[in-house]
Write a structure and sequence with these properties.
The protein is of the alpha+beta class. Helices cover about 25% and strands about 30% of the residues. The structure holds zinc ion.
Protein backbone atom coordinates (compact mmCIF):
# COMPACT_ATOMS: atom_id res chain seq x y z
CA UNK A 1 0.00 0.00 0.00
CA UNK A 2 1.12 3.52 -0.74
CA UNK A 3 0.00 6.70 0.91
CA UNK A 4 -0.36 10.14 -0.45
CA UNK A 5 -0.84 13.31 1.49
CA UNK A 6 -2.59 15.33 -1.18
CA UNK A 7 -5.79 14.32 -2.94
CA UNK A 8 -4.85 12.83 -6.30
CA UNK A 9 -6.71 13.78 -9.42
CA UNK A 10 -8.85 10.90 -10.51
CA UNK A 11 -6.41 9.19 -12.78
CA UNK A 12 -7.83 7.77 -15.92
CA UNK A 13 -6.54 7.33 -19.38
CA UNK A 14 -7.27 10.50 -21.27
CA UNK A 15 -6.60 9.37 -24.79
CA UNK A 16 -9.72 7.26 -24.95
CA UNK A 17 -11.98 9.22 -22.69
CA UNK A 18 -12.63 12.57 -24.29
CA UNK A 19 -15.79 12.95 -22.24
CA UNK A 20 -13.72 12.88 -19.10
CA UNK A 21 -11.06 15.34 -20.14
CA UNK A 22 -12.15 17.89 -17.60
CA UNK A 23 -10.77 15.53 -15.01
CA UNK A 24 -7.45 15.43 -16.90
CA UNK A 25 -4.82 13.17 -15.43
CA UNK A 26 -2.32 14.50 -12.94
CA UNK A 27 0.45 12.29 -11.68
CA UNK A 28 -0.08 10.99 -8.19
CA UNK A 29 2.19 13.11 -6.07
CA UNK A 30 3.53 13.74 -2.60
CA UNK A 31 3.92 10.09 -1.93
CA UNK A 32 4.79 9.44 1.71
CA UNK A 33 7.87 7.33 2.00
CA UNK A 34 8.66 7.28 5.68
CA UNK A 35 5.54 5.76 7.24
CA UNK A 36 5.11 2.03 7.39
CA UNK A 37 1.74 0.44 7.98
CA UNK A 38 0.58 -3.06 7.38
CA UNK A 39 0.72 -3.96 3.75
CA UNK A 40 -2.59 -4.92 2.26
CA UNK A 41 -3.03 -7.70 -0.26
CA UNK A 42 -2.99 -6.99 -3.93
CA UNK A 43 -6.06 -5.73 -5.73
CA UNK A 44 -8.59 -8.51 -6.00
CA UNK A 45 -12.18 -9.05 -6.94
CA UNK A 46 -13.25 -8.80 -3.31
CA UNK A 47 -12.90 -5.03 -3.45
CA UNK A 48 -16.68 -4.86 -3.32
CA UNK A 49 -16.39 -5.98 0.27
CA UNK A 50 -14.51 -2.81 1.07
CA UNK A 51 -17.14 -0.73 -0.69
CA UNK A 52 -19.86 -2.28 1.42
CA UNK A 53 -17.92 -1.27 4.50
CA UNK A 54 -18.59 2.31 3.51
CA UNK A 55 -15.46 3.66 1.90
CA UNK A 56 -15.38 5.76 -1.20
CA UNK A 57 -12.97 3.95 -3.45
CA UNK A 58 -12.21 5.15 -6.93
CA UNK A 59 -10.32 3.30 -9.59
CA UNK A 60 -7.90 4.89 -11.98
CA UNK A 61 -6.08 3.19 -14.77
CA UNK A 62 -3.47 3.92 -17.38
CA UNK A 63 -2.48 1.82 -20.33
CA UNK A 64 1.18 0.86 -20.53
CA UNK A 65 3.52 2.93 -22.64
CA UNK A 66 5.68 1.66 -25.39
CA UNK A 67 8.18 3.97 -27.08
CA UNK A 68 6.71 6.79 -25.03
CA UNK A 69 3.20 6.21 -26.39
CA UNK A 70 0.25 4.57 -24.65
CA UNK A 71 -0.13 1.08 -25.97
CA UNK A 72 -3.58 -0.44 -26.29
CA UNK A 73 -5.83 -2.06 -28.86
CA UNK A 74 -9.18 -0.88 -30.08
CA UNK A 75 -12.13 -2.85 -31.41
CA UNK A 76 -15.54 -1.79 -32.60
CA UNK A 77 -18.67 -3.92 -32.42
CA UNK A 78 -20.83 -2.98 -35.39
CA UNK A 79 -24.25 -4.00 -36.59
CA UNK A 80 -25.71 -2.90 -39.92
CA UNK A 81 -22.98 -0.31 -40.28
CA UNK A 82 -23.64 1.27 -36.90
CA UNK A 83 -21.37 1.10 -33.86
CA UNK A 84 -22.83 -0.79 -30.92
CA UNK A 85 -19.83 -0.69 -28.61
CA UNK A 86 -16.18 0.27 -28.54
CA UNK A 87 -13.62 -1.82 -26.70
CA UNK A 88 -10.17 -0.83 -25.51
CA UNK A 89 -7.72 -3.43 -24.33
CA UNK A 90 -4.30 -3.13 -22.72
CA UNK A 91 -1.93 -5.76 -21.39
CA UNK A 92 -0.61 -5.05 -17.93
CA UNK A 93 -2.29 -1.67 -17.55
CA UNK A 94 -1.66 0.14 -14.29
CA UNK A 95 -4.61 0.18 -11.93
CA UNK A 96 -4.98 2.33 -8.87
CA UNK A 97 -7.54 1.83 -6.17
CA UNK A 98 -7.68 5.07 -4.25
CA UNK A 99 -9.50 5.21 -0.94
CA UNK A 100 -10.88 8.69 -0.39
CA UNK A 101 -12.22 7.87 3.05
CA UNK A 102 -15.48 6.93 4.73
CA UNK A 103 -18.59 7.68 2.70
CA UNK A 104 -20.08 9.33 5.80
CA UNK A 105 -17.06 11.51 6.47
CA UNK A 106 -17.35 15.25 7.02
CA UNK A 107 -17.48 17.40 3.91
CA UNK A 108 -14.11 18.32 2.52
CA UNK A 109 -12.29 15.77 4.64
CA UNK A 110 -10.65 13.27 2.36
CA UNK A 111 -8.63 10.31 3.45
CA UNK A 112 -7.83 9.01 6.91
CA UNK A 113 -5.94 10.21 9.92
CA UNK A 114 -2.63 8.50 10.38
CA UNK A 115 -0.27 8.64 13.32
CA UNK A 116 2.95 9.46 11.55
CA UNK A 117 5.13 8.38 14.42
CA UNK A 118 3.76 4.96 15.08
CA UNK A 119 1.73 4.06 12.00
CA UNK A 120 -1.71 3.82 13.70
CA UNK A 121 -4.92 4.75 11.90
CA UNK A 122 -7.41 7.23 13.34
CA UNK A 123 -11.11 6.77 14.10
CA UNK A 124 -13.71 5.32 11.77
CA UNK A 125 -16.93 7.15 10.91
CA UNK A 126 -18.79 5.61 13.86
CA UNK A 127 -16.21 6.96 16.29
CA UNK A 128 -14.72 3.55 16.92
CA UNK A 129 -11.33 3.54 18.55
CA UNK A 130 -8.10 3.89 16.64
CA UNK A 131 -6.38 0.59 16.08
CA UNK A 132 -4.28 0.94 19.23
CA UNK A 133 -5.36 1.51 22.84
CA UNK A 134 -3.68 4.74 23.82
CA UNK A 135 -4.88 7.05 21.02
CA UNK A 136 -2.87 8.91 18.44
CA UNK A 137 0.30 10.85 19.09
CA UNK A 138 0.53 14.55 18.33
CA UNK A 139 1.97 13.95 14.90
CA UNK A 140 -0.98 13.02 12.71
CA UNK A 141 -1.54 13.56 9.00
CA UNK A 142 -4.52 13.12 6.75
CA UNK A 143 -3.58 10.61 4.07
CA UNK A 144 -5.22 8.95 1.12
CA UNK A 145 -4.15 5.33 0.78
CA UNK A 146 -3.98 3.64 -2.56
CA UNK A 147 -2.79 0.41 -4.07
CA UNK A 148 -1.21 0.09 -7.46
CA UNK A 149 -1.19 -2.98 -9.63
CA UNK A 150 -0.73 -4.22 -13.17
CA UNK A 151 -3.63 -6.02 -14.79
CA UNK A 152 -4.90 -6.93 -18.22
CA UNK A 153 -7.74 -4.45 -18.67
CA UNK A 154 -10.66 -4.18 -21.04
CA UNK A 155 -12.89 -1.15 -21.24
CA UNK A 156 -16.33 -1.58 -22.68
CA UNK A 157 -18.10 1.54 -23.86
CA UNK A 158 -21.63 1.21 -25.19
CA UNK A 159 -22.41 3.55 -28.06
CA UNK A 160 -25.97 4.10 -26.88
CA UNK A 161 -26.35 6.34 -23.85
CA UNK A 162 -27.54 4.04 -21.13
CA UNK A 163 -28.83 5.10 -17.74
CA UNK A 164 -26.92 4.18 -14.61
CA UNK A 165 -29.36 1.36 -13.72
CA UNK A 166 -28.93 -0.08 -17.22
CA UNK A 167 -25.16 0.13 -16.96
CA UNK A 168 -25.26 -1.62 -13.58
CA UNK A 169 -27.39 -4.41 -15.09
CA UNK A 170 -25.20 -4.64 -18.19
CA UNK A 171 -22.04 -4.82 -16.11
CA UNK A 172 -23.34 -7.74 -14.11
CA UNK A 173 -24.78 -9.55 -17.13
CA UNK A 174 -21.58 -9.21 -19.19
CA UNK A 175 -19.34 -10.21 -16.30
CA UNK A 176 -21.39 -13.35 -15.66
CA UNK A 177 -21.47 -14.13 -19.37
CA UNK A 178 -17.70 -13.78 -19.80
CA UNK A 179 -17.24 -16.10 -16.83
CA UNK A 180 -19.54 -18.70 -18.36
CA UNK A 181 -18.13 -18.35 -21.87
CA UNK A 182 -14.51 -18.70 -20.74
CA UNK A 183 -15.11 -20.95 -17.73
CA UNK A 184 -13.75 -18.53 -15.16
CA UNK A 185 -14.42 -18.56 -11.45
CA UNK A 186 -16.37 -15.62 -10.09
CA UNK A 187 -13.26 -14.18 -8.41
CA UNK A 188 -11.06 -14.38 -11.52
CA UNK A 189 -12.74 -11.45 -13.22
CA UNK A 190 -13.58 -8.05 -11.79
CA UNK A 191 -15.89 -5.43 -13.28
CA UNK A 192 -16.34 -1.82 -12.25
CA UNK A 193 -18.11 1.24 -13.55
CA UNK A 194 -16.07 4.14 -14.89
CA UNK A 195 -15.59 6.91 -14.10
CA UNK A 196 -17.41 6.10 -10.85
CA UNK A 197 -20.33 4.28 -9.26
CA UNK A 198 -22.34 7.49 -9.40
CA UNK A 199 -21.58 8.17 -13.05
CA UNK A 200 -21.47 5.02 -15.13
CA UNK A 201 -20.34 5.52 -18.70
CA UNK A 202 -18.02 2.60 -19.24
CA UNK A 203 -17.30 -0.77 -17.74
CA UNK A 204 -13.78 -1.69 -16.74
CA UNK A 205 -13.08 -5.40 -16.72
CA UNK A 206 -9.83 -6.74 -15.38
CA UNK A 207 -8.40 -10.12 -14.66
CA UNK A 208 -7.87 -10.58 -10.97
CA UNK A 209 -4.69 -12.59 -11.30
CA UNK A 210 -1.50 -10.91 -12.38
CA UNK A 211 -0.76 -12.08 -15.90
CA UNK A 212 -4.29 -13.46 -16.04
CA UNK A 213 -5.73 -16.16 -18.25
CA UNK A 214 -5.69 -13.90 -21.29
CA UNK A 215 -9.46 -14.09 -21.54
CA UNK A 216 -10.04 -10.40 -22.14
CA UNK A 217 -7.59 -10.38 -25.03
CA UNK A 218 -9.44 -13.28 -26.60
CA UNK A 219 -12.56 -11.11 -26.72
CA UNK A 220 -10.72 -8.97 -29.26
CA UNK A 221 -8.87 -11.76 -31.05
CA UNK A 222 -11.96 -13.77 -31.89
CA UNK A 223 -14.42 -11.74 -33.94
CA UNK A 224 -17.36 -13.84 -32.71
CA UNK A 225 -16.50 -13.94 -29.02
CA UNK A 226 -18.20 -10.70 -27.98
CA UNK A 227 -21.44 -11.59 -29.79
CA UNK A 228 -21.35 -14.99 -28.10
CA UNK A 229 -20.86 -13.32 -24.73
CA UNK A 230 -23.92 -11.15 -25.47
CA UNK A 231 -25.93 -14.27 -26.35
CA UNK A 232 -24.85 -15.84 -23.10
CA UNK A 233 -25.82 -12.65 -21.26
CA UNK A 234 -29.31 -12.84 -22.79
CA UNK A 235 -29.59 -16.46 -21.66
CA UNK A 236 -28.44 -15.49 -18.16
CA UNK A 237 -31.08 -12.73 -18.13
CA UNK A 238 -33.76 -15.35 -18.93
CA UNK A 239 -34.22 -14.32 -22.56
CA UNK A 240 -34.06 -16.58 -25.57
CA UNK A 241 -30.85 -15.38 -27.26
CA UNK A 242 -32.24 -15.86 -30.77
CA UNK A 243 -35.72 -14.39 -30.45
CA UNK A 244 -35.26 -12.23 -27.38
CA UNK A 245 -38.42 -13.74 -25.87
CA UNK A 246 -38.73 -13.62 -22.09
CA UNK A 247 -38.40 -17.10 -20.62
CA UNK A 248 -39.39 -15.68 -17.25
CA UNK A 249 -36.79 -17.24 -15.02
CA UNK A 250 -34.39 -20.12 -14.56
CA UNK A 251 -35.70 -23.50 -15.75
CA UNK A 252 -37.94 -25.14 -13.18
CA UNK A 253 -38.17 -22.07 -10.95
CA UNK A 254 -41.46 -21.70 -9.09
CA UNK A 255 -41.56 -17.93 -9.40
CA UNK A 256 -40.97 -15.60 -12.29
CA UNK A 257 -37.93 -13.37 -12.09
CA UNK A 258 -39.29 -9.83 -12.24
CA UNK A 259 -36.31 -7.50 -12.45
CA UNK A 260 -33.38 -9.53 -11.20
CA UNK A 261 -32.60 -12.61 -9.14
CA UNK A 262 -29.58 -14.53 -7.93
CA UNK A 263 -29.82 -16.74 -11.02
CA UNK A 264 -29.32 -13.82 -13.37
CA UNK A 265 -27.67 -10.53 -12.50
CA UNK A 266 -27.80 -10.34 -8.71
CA UNK A 267 -24.86 -11.62 -6.70
CA UNK A 268 -23.29 -11.01 -3.33
CA UNK A 269 -20.65 -8.80 -4.90
CA UNK A 270 -23.08 -6.25 -6.34
CA UNK A 271 -25.41 -5.72 -3.38
CA UNK A 272 -24.95 -1.97 -3.71
CA UNK A 273 -26.62 -2.23 -7.12
CA UNK A 274 -29.46 -4.62 -6.24
CA UNK A 275 -32.11 -1.93 -6.14
CA UNK A 276 -31.13 -0.73 -9.61
CA UNK A 277 -30.80 -4.03 -11.45
CA UNK A 278 -33.34 -4.71 -14.16
CA UNK A 279 -32.77 -7.42 -16.73
CA UNK A 280 -35.50 -6.05 -19.03
CA UNK A 281 -33.71 -2.72 -19.33
CA UNK A 282 -30.77 -4.26 -21.22
CA UNK A 283 -32.60 -6.75 -23.42
CA UNK A 284 -32.62 -4.52 -26.49
CA UNK A 285 -29.00 -3.58 -26.11
CA UNK A 286 -27.85 -7.17 -25.63
CA UNK A 287 -29.78 -8.23 -28.75
CA UNK A 288 -27.94 -5.56 -30.73
CA UNK A 289 -24.63 -6.71 -29.34
CA UNK A 290 -25.43 -10.35 -30.05
CA UNK A 291 -26.05 -9.43 -33.68
CA UNK A 292 -22.87 -7.42 -34.04
CA UNK A 293 -19.51 -8.29 -35.55
CA UNK A 294 -16.29 -7.15 -33.96
CA UNK A 295 -13.74 -5.27 -36.01
CA UNK A 296 -10.52 -5.43 -34.06
CA UNK A 297 -7.49 -3.31 -34.74
CA UNK A 298 -4.04 -4.18 -33.44
CA UNK A 299 -3.46 -0.59 -32.34
CA UNK A 300 -5.13 2.52 -31.03
CA UNK A 301 -6.76 3.45 -34.32
CA UNK A 302 -9.94 1.70 -35.49
CA UNK A 303 -9.35 -1.19 -37.87
CA UNK A 304 -10.28 0.68 -41.06
CA UNK A 305 -7.83 3.50 -40.40
CA UNK A 306 -5.09 1.12 -39.35
CA UNK A 307 -5.57 -0.92 -42.52
CA UNK A 308 -5.32 2.24 -44.65
CA UNK A 309 -2.03 3.13 -42.91
CA UNK A 310 -0.62 -0.33 -43.60
CA UNK A 311 -1.73 -0.17 -47.23
CA UNK A 312 0.10 3.12 -47.70
CA UNK A 313 3.34 1.62 -46.43
CA UNK A 314 3.19 -1.43 -48.70
CA UNK A 315 6.01 -1.90 -51.18
CA UNK A 316 4.21 -3.94 -53.79
CA UNK A 317 0.81 -4.86 -55.12
CA UNK A 318 1.38 -8.40 -53.86
CA UNK A 319 1.71 -7.08 -50.30
CA UNK A 320 -1.50 -5.10 -50.66
CA UNK A 321 -3.19 -8.22 -51.99
CA UNK A 322 -2.01 -10.13 -48.91
CA UNK A 323 -3.40 -7.43 -46.58
CA UNK A 324 -6.76 -7.52 -48.33
CA UNK A 325 -6.75 -11.29 -48.03
CA UNK A 326 -6.16 -11.03 -44.25
CA UNK A 327 -8.72 -8.28 -43.79
CA UNK A 328 -11.48 -9.94 -45.78
CA UNK A 329 -11.27 -13.02 -43.59
CA UNK A 330 -11.50 -10.94 -40.44
CA UNK A 331 -8.03 -12.06 -39.35
CA UNK A 332 -5.67 -10.08 -37.13
CA UNK A 333 -3.98 -7.28 -39.01
CA UNK A 334 -0.25 -6.75 -38.57
CA UNK A 335 0.85 -3.99 -36.21
CA UNK A 336 3.47 -2.69 -38.66
CA UNK A 337 4.29 -2.70 -42.35
CA UNK A 338 7.84 -2.38 -43.75
CA UNK A 339 9.25 -2.84 -40.28
CA UNK A 340 12.98 -2.50 -39.79
CA UNK A 341 14.72 -5.08 -37.62
CA UNK A 342 18.23 -3.77 -37.22
CA UNK A 343 19.67 -6.85 -35.52
CA UNK A 344 19.00 -8.86 -38.69
CA UNK A 345 19.61 -6.02 -41.12
CA UNK A 346 16.26 -6.56 -42.68
CA UNK A 347 13.01 -4.78 -43.28
CA UNK A 348 10.19 -7.28 -42.95
CA UNK A 349 7.06 -6.81 -45.05
CA UNK A 350 4.74 -7.03 -42.05
CA UNK A 351 5.29 -7.35 -38.36
CA UNK A 352 3.05 -8.54 -35.53
CA UNK A 353 4.02 -7.14 -32.17
CA UNK A 354 1.74 -9.01 -29.79
CA UNK A 355 3.60 -8.25 -26.59
CA UNK A 356 5.39 -11.45 -25.64
CA UNK A 357 4.82 -12.92 -29.08
CA UNK A 358 6.25 -11.44 -32.23
CA UNK A 359 5.98 -12.51 -35.84
CA UNK A 360 7.48 -11.41 -39.13
CA UNK A 361 5.62 -11.88 -42.40
CA UNK A 362 7.25 -12.01 -45.80
CA UNK A 363 5.16 -11.82 -48.91
CA UNK A 364 7.52 -13.04 -51.61
CA UNK A 365 7.25 -12.06 -55.23
CA UNK A 366 8.97 -14.01 -58.05
CA UNK A 367 12.33 -12.33 -57.29
CA UNK A 368 12.64 -14.54 -54.20
CA UNK A 369 12.75 -17.64 -56.40
CA UNK A 370 16.35 -16.78 -57.28
CA UNK A 371 18.88 -19.09 -55.58
CA UNK A 372 21.10 -16.27 -54.21
CA UNK A 373 18.07 -14.46 -52.84
CA UNK A 374 16.81 -17.64 -51.24
CA UNK A 375 20.11 -18.09 -49.43
CA UNK A 376 19.91 -14.56 -48.05
CA UNK A 377 16.26 -15.07 -47.00
CA UNK A 378 17.28 -18.16 -45.07
CA UNK A 379 19.98 -16.25 -43.20
CA UNK A 380 17.55 -13.50 -42.22
CA UNK A 381 15.01 -16.10 -41.15
CA UNK A 382 17.56 -17.78 -38.88
CA UNK A 383 18.46 -14.42 -37.34
CA UNK A 384 14.80 -13.57 -36.66
CA UNK A 385 14.18 -16.95 -35.10
CA UNK A 386 17.18 -16.43 -32.82
CA UNK A 387 15.43 -13.26 -31.62
CA UNK A 388 12.33 -15.32 -30.85
CA UNK A 389 10.37 -13.90 -33.79
CA UNK A 390 8.05 -16.32 -35.57
CA UNK A 391 8.53 -16.21 -39.33
CA UNK A 392 5.68 -16.74 -41.78
CA UNK A 393 6.42 -16.71 -45.49
CA UNK A 394 3.76 -16.34 -48.17
CA UNK A 395 5.02 -16.97 -51.70
CA UNK A 396 3.28 -15.73 -54.83
CA UNK A 397 1.09 -18.49 -56.19
CA UNK A 398 1.06 -20.40 -52.90
CA UNK A 399 -2.11 -21.37 -51.04
CA UNK A 400 -2.16 -18.56 -48.46
CA UNK A 401 -5.19 -19.97 -46.67
CA UNK A 402 -3.27 -23.18 -45.95
CA UNK A 403 -0.19 -21.30 -44.70
CA UNK A 404 -2.34 -19.20 -42.37
CA UNK A 405 -3.69 -22.29 -40.66
CA UNK A 406 -0.22 -23.04 -39.34
CA UNK A 407 -0.13 -19.72 -37.46
CA UNK A 408 -3.52 -19.44 -35.73
CA UNK A 409 -1.88 -17.92 -32.66
CA UNK A 410 -0.76 -14.96 -34.77
CA UNK A 411 -3.47 -14.47 -37.37
CA UNK A 412 -6.49 -15.83 -35.48
CA UNK A 413 -9.06 -18.07 -37.09
CA UNK A 414 -10.49 -17.34 -40.51
CA UNK A 415 -14.22 -16.96 -40.94
CA UNK A 416 -16.02 -20.23 -41.61
CA UNK A 417 -16.41 -20.97 -45.30
CA UNK A 418 -20.01 -20.58 -46.30
ZN1 LIG B 1 -33.43 -13.58 -12.72
Amino acid sequence: MFLISAPPAFFIHKAILPALRRRGPTPVRDQLQSVSTRRREKISADEEERLRMGCEIKTGFRFPKRDGKPSYRTATARKDGATVATLFYGNAATLWRINFGWTRRKRGEQGFLLDMERGYWGKGPEGDAPDNEDGLSALVARVIPFVEDRRNCLIFQPEAILEDYQMASLQSALKNAVQVRFQLEENELAAEPLPSFMDRRMILFYESAEGGAGVLRRLLDDGRALAEVAEEALRICHFDPASGLDVGGPPGAAEKCEAACYDCIMNYGNQKDHGALDRHSIREYLLELAGSALEASPGEKPRGEHLADLMKRCDSELEREWLRFIDEQGLNLPTHAQYLIRECETRVDFFYDLGAEKAAVFVDGPVHDDAGRRERDRRVEGCLEDLGVVVARFGHGEDWGRILKGFCGIFGNAKEDN
